[in-house]
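Troubleshooting: if your tokenizer reports a length mismatch, compare your output against this known-good record of 59 residues.
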Amino acid sequence: MPVHHRAATVFALLAALQAVIGVVFTAAFDRAFGAPLFWTATGSFALAWYFQRKATTKQ
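Known-good structure output:
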């Protein structure tokens, strides 16, 4: 697996994990606990998109 595909996969899985934990924290506590995780998940999805685009242009 090329390095950019691997990076895209890792960032997508990290973002999914952050979103799930954010939902759990929001449901269990308050929006203030889950909101930072949603922002970091958005950043991780953006990085996953970037590395996926970079991987497809290298071929």
